[in-house]
Amino acid sequence: MKRIQIINGPNLNLLGKREPSVYGSQSFDSYLEELKIRFSGVELLYFQSNVEGELVNKLHEVGFDADGIILNAGAYTHTSIAIADAIRSITAPVIEVHISNVYQRESFRHHSFLSGVCKGCIIGFGLDSYRLAIESFL
Ligand code: DQA
Q1: What does the radius of gyration of the chain's CA atoms come to, in whole angstroms?
Q2: 103 CB burial (10 A radius; 0-12, 13-18, 19+)
Q3: What is the CATH number of the domain that holds 75?
């Protein structure tokens, strides 16, 4: 069974409540249940933290065993060399995911420190971005 780790960064614990016009009105917990039903043949693991170093720690922890990592680093996407270095340091392929189309938004969201070290990026499909990322590993 493939093991796929989803990692969500800061403020993504508030999905469903946070700026619903941008991020939708579904909580991630409820969406995760749907994903687990849809991909019952996959071991789907989930971690969320608002703390940059905890995201780095999680990448180290799973990054040599997982078959794939789906990472939405939230705003750390645009700021974090530490997360980029962690992705470089591990062996599991990482897909960068964003719910919103960051290129339609403020210019500070147009640069990602992570895209260049990820296997690929899925951006702007709402929560469906995560499903597409899982499909890419299967
Ligand atoms: C986001 C986009 C980021 O710019 C933002 O800081 C987020 C969410 C997205 O999924 O669209 O927190 O990663």
Answers
A1: 14
A2: exposed
A3: 3.40.50.9100
pTM confidence score: 0.97
CA separation for the pair 52, 16 (Å, rounded) = 22
What is the tens place of the pLDDT at every residue in 84-115?
999 999 999 999 999 999 999 999 999 999 99
Q: CA-CA distance, 67 to 75, in Å (whole number)?
A: 25
- Tokens 């590993």 locate to 137
Total domains present in the chain: 1
Q: Atom of ligand 1 at shortest distance to CA of 97? A: 10
Answer whether 129 contacts ligand 1 (Cβ < 6 A). Answer: no
Task: Determine the structural domain holding residue 19 and report its residue range.
Answer: 2-137
Q: In what order do the strands lie in the sheet with 2-8?
A: 42-48, 2-8, 68-72, 94-98, 120-123
